[in-house]
Structures are given as structure tokens and as C-alpha cells.
Amino acid sequence: xxxxxxxxxxxxxxxxxxxxxxxxxxxxxxxxxxxxxxxxxxxxxxxxxxxxxxxxxxxxxxxxxxxxxxxxxxxxxxxxxxxxxxxxxxxxxxxxxxxxxxxxxxxxxxxxxxxxxxxxxxxxxxxxxxxxxxxxxxxxxxxxxxxxxxxxxxxxxxxxxxxxxxxxxxxxxxxxxxxxxxxxxxxxxxxxxxxxxxxxxxxxxxxxxxxxxxxxxxxxxxxxxxxxxxxxxxxxxxxxxxxxxxxxxxxxxxxxxxxxxxxxxxxxxxxxxxxxxxxxxxxxxxxxxxxxxxxxxxxxxxxxxxxxxxxxxxxxxxxxxxxxxxxxxxxxxx
Length: 334
Fold this sequence. Notes:
Blueprint: H1 2-11, E1 13-19, H2 25-29, H3 34-43, E2 46-50, E3 53-59, H4 60-78, H5 85-96, E4 113-114, E5 121-122, H6 127-138, E6 141-145, H7 152-165, E7 171-176, H8 192-210, H9 213-221, E8 225-229, E9 241-245, H10 253-260, E10 268-273, H11 287-295, E11 301-305, H12 315-327
Parallel strand pairs: 6-10, 6-11, 7-8, 7-9, 9-10
Antiparallel strand pairs: 1-3, 2-3, 4-5
Helix pairs in contact: 3-5, 4-5, 6-7, 7-8, 10-11
């Protein structure tokens, strides 16, 4: 009986060999062969590298699917893309149908920017991010709404730096409402810059990921990059600028109008936020929630909705977002 079962098991197994000639194997396999281990766990088989050959062995009904995933990864590496755990998990889940089918991102998609001091290119990783980037290129005002980890702020900063590099704008203005901790600027210690730094830290972090600290300091000292709390924007006109309003769910409708009407000639505004994280006393007054109904038919304005499928932080972040959404729990615990 056991021999019969063993024969059946062997009948259900298949093998395939793939050529890895000319491929950066470290980039494909991941640190410590982490990408291979991930695929083996999902596949229920083994992936073994022998020289320039990759041997796949496992369940016959899943072998072709794994081969397609590996072929896709090989093409991405061939075109200089980074295959990290986020990209790998996204590709796997898309391939096996655990998420709604989405148009695939071309392997040769042009990078948005090359990180300072390295050859690593910044590229979109999800279809939602691709839609977001296109909207920014095609419109002067873009609202990007989505949960934590979807790359809303990071991509806005990347695109701002790209516009600055190509001299499409003269400066970048980073703006945030200062209400997250329920405190007012006047009650915080230090001068103005010291007061606003905690509120603007996420924007600085995004800048630091793509531009060296020394370059950021130089740009800020000569006014090429400016960081300001939303309250200090009143009465200004911003010409030839790429303006980013982050955490916009914490603006009132009046503040949102004030910000949007600061836009001058040859300027672009990107407004990002998560409507599940409103810290205003009355969440119904969030300018980010209400502005869509007002501007949805306005020419030159685009709204981009991102969701858990676009989360590109640690893979666990997307599962956490989905679990809280399923429970109907927001950041206040309600």
C-alpha cells in the first residue's frame, strides 16, 4: 500500500529547467536565497540553482504557474528592477488569483528617478502606483487617497525631485497640517524650524531615501526645498513650484480651499492622505473627504484611490490594514 502511494506521489511530481545565463543571480534569488525559499513555500516543491540552470521540481498542477512567476522575475532583473519581498509577494498573489486581476506593469517601465549616490532606480511596484504617477504627469492637481504603506508620500516626493531635476519647477514646497498630536505649534519648544520638524519628519524621511542629507540641507538653506506647516501658507502664491500637502485628511474644508488657491503659474500640487486616519474633532469636516464632491468634475484635477493591494511596506502591513478594515476599526479604536 505504501509503495502504491509512493508511486502516486511520484506521478504527481514534475520537473522543469530554466536558463539563468547572463542573469544577476543575487538580484533574482534574493539575500540568502530568500526569494527561492518564498517560492518553495508557496509552491510546495523545490527550486535548486546549479550553475546557470534553475531546476524546478514539485506538484505537476503548480509547476507551470511557478515557471511563469520565475520567468517574470527573470525579465524584471534583466531590466534592472529590484526583486524584493514586496514585489515578489505582489507578483505571486496576482498570478495565483488571490487578488483581483490588474494590468501588469511593463518590465521596461522607465524609472521615476535614480536614488542619489547609487544606480538603484525608483520604479512603481503596483498598478495603483502606476495610475497615481500618470495622474501627476497629466494633471496640475492630484489627490491621492489610500491606507498606510501605499507609497503616496514617497512617490510624491520622488516625482517632485524628478521635476526639479528636469527644471520643470524651481522649488519644492512640503506642507503638513500640525494637528496630529492635538497640540498647537505655539506650545512646542524651540524656534519655528524646531517646532515644525516633528510634523514634517515623514516628508524628510522620504527625501532622505532618495537624496543625501547634505544635499537636502543645501537645498533647504537656499530655498529650493521649503517645509512649512499649513497654517503658514495663507496669503502666499506659489509659482514654478511642486507643492505636496501630506496628511490632508487633517485639513478642514476651509484650509483645503486656502491651500489649493495658493497655486501659481507653472505649479503642480499633490495632496495625499488616508481618510481612515482623521484626527480632527469632527471627522465629517475633513477637507479631504469633502473636496471630492466639490472638485470631481473640475478639469485639471484628478483623484486616485489606492487600497491594500498597493501597500509596499513589509508584507505584514497589508494584512494588518485588511484585518482592521474587515473589523471596521479606525485609528481611534472606533
